[in-house]
Amino acid sequence: DLQGLLNADVSMAGRMSDVEAQRYDKFKAAGSLNLKGMNYKSDSLPYAIGINDLLFNFSPQALELVNYDGNVGRSDIKAKGRIDNYLQWWLKDSTLAGSFDVASNLFDLNELMGPADPATAAADTQSMSLIEVPKKINVRVNANVKKVVYDDMNLENCRGGLHVHDERVDLSDMFFNLFQGSVAMDGSYNTQDKAHPKVDLHYDVKDLDIEETVKYA
Asked: 113: which of 73, 119, 124, 135 is 20 to 30 A away, CA to CA?
């Protein structure tokens, strides 16, 4: 079941040599893409996907996400940002760079991950496989989420920065309230060495209620 309105008016023309030399004034890339009131439901998904409003503006220098307002099931998402040098990435397989600000009132990880299969969980004794971070991407995300629901826990006032680059993910100034206290976190996940991926996390935990912490441990 799919519904919504799509308006698109985009034109591109020019030489790759002008893009490589950053002579963007000689390359034509202009227009916009706007999606409104989209709702998507499928038997293959346990939740609906909706986009109230999405607006992309195109220029030779950047692909700008002016506004995104939508939901995935119970989770609402608002975002804005831009992707730079997308033409070089698209035409010549270069590094894709960008930055985004993302906000949400509620992010329900339980719904997004789906119900756990007890049989699968009981039989899963294999070691974890490597989750590779892409090479040619350099993207920063600043997130601010009022509530994250995970298992039986509610993480409140979540915020922080995420930088995906050079086959690694860096976390900076991460913060959330939990068990009547707070947790601040920095660190990284590095997959440059596929045989020996590295996780390096630093925590600053304050005023967690011991009884609640033990109950969920």
From this structure: 135
CA-based nearest residue to 165, from 144, 138, 185, 205:
138
Q: Tens digits of per-residue pLDDT, 54-109? A: 999 999 889 999 999 999 999 999 999 999 988 888 777 788 999 999 999 999 99
Whole-Å CA distances, 205 to 178, 183, 199, 213, 217: 10, 5, 19, 12, 15
The string of DSSP letters for 140-178 reads EEEEEEEEEEETTEEEEEEEEEEEEETTEEEEEEEEEEE
Query: What is the pTM for the complete model shown?
Result: 0.83
Alpha-carbon gap, residue 51 to 78, rounded angstroms = 10
Query: For the chain, how many residues are written?
Result: 217
